[in-house]
Write a structure and sequence with these properties.
Elements lengths: L8 E12 L2 E12 L3 E5 L6 H8 L7 E6 L12 E4 L11 H9 L7 H10 L13 H13 L5 E5 L7 H14 L6 E5 L3 H4 L5 E6 L2 E7 H8 L3 H8 L2
Parallel strand pairs: 3-7, 3-8, 5-6, 6-7
Antiparallel strand pairs: 1-2, 1-4, 8-9
Helix pairs in contact: 3-4, 4-5
Length: 238
């Protein structure tokens, strides 16, 4: 099931396959993602979510097929147009929160100091704290600030809620919604936390075994299945 939309396109993928030695990670992906939307990328472990996001970020390349982000093929030069938040935590533990944000900001000309300050307050982080003293949830909030403080057309978030407490998940979701600029940004968010994330999503993509199983608007899916996205998840992957 694939939704057809005539809105301006942020991401266009045609016939994309990705193979790692003996593993087929993506197996014939055709996809269009419209500008100005928050898209949920859902699926069990190994379904291809992280591979797809890394490909959009220009960190890896397809074995075959084409991918365009905002009209051009993604590569390392696109980093000024894309904010990518990986699942892996690569923060320096010896830095303070303030030093971490200053360090990251030096790499990007689009860094918004005022926005970073507002997000720091919203996430309830003390800029004087050392990263090594932060809980996993606090570190996740800090990583999200690093992504959302940039003024870019595309934001890619890979499992931003992985293994963190409900309070941190709530703060992160609130910040994503409150800071989202529909006229300027597109956000793709990979997550297993479907219940909490559901209110954010304009569109939803369900991946399975490197293929798109379902792609439609969240509203259409809830209407068609007569239940929440969380319940749809259970039906799709039962």
């Amino acid at each position: 099931m694939t939704a057809i939309d005539q809105s301006p396109t942020m991401i266009e993928i045609k016939g994309v396959h990705k193979r790692y030695l003996l593993k087929q990670a993506l197996n014939g992906i055709d996809l269009q993602i419209k500008k100005g939307s928050i898209v949920g990328l859902l699926g069990p472990n190994g379904s291809g979510k992280s591979t797809l996001l890394k490909m959009m970020a220009g960190l890896i390349y397809p074995t075959s097929g084409t991918i365009l982000v905002n009209g051009r093929e993604p590569d390392v030069r696109n980093k000024q147009q894309i904010a990518y938040l990986p699942e892996i935590d690569s923060l320096y533990s010896w830095m303070t929160v303030k030093e971490t944000l200053q360090f990251i900001s030096a790499f990007y000309s689009d860094w918004q100091v005022d926005k970073a300050s507002l997000l720091l307050h919203a996430m309830e982080l003390d800029e004087r704290q050392k990263v090594r003293n932060l809980s996993k949830g606090m570190r996740a909030r800090l990583k999200l600030i690093a992504a959302l403080a940039r003024k870019v057309p595309l934001v890619l978030l890979d499992e931003p809620f992985s293994g963190i407490d409900p309070m941190s998940r709530a703060k992160i979701i609130h910040s994503i919604i409150s800071e989202f600029q529909a006229d300027e940004q597109t956000i793709l968010l990979s997550t297993h936390s479907v219940k909490e994330s559901e209110p954010m999503f304009d569109d939803v993509i369900f991946l399975q075994n490197g293929r798109i199983k379902i792609h439609d608007s969240a509203e259409n899916l809830r209407s068609e299945f007569g239940c929440s996205l969380e319940n749809i998840w259970e039906k799709v992957y039962a």
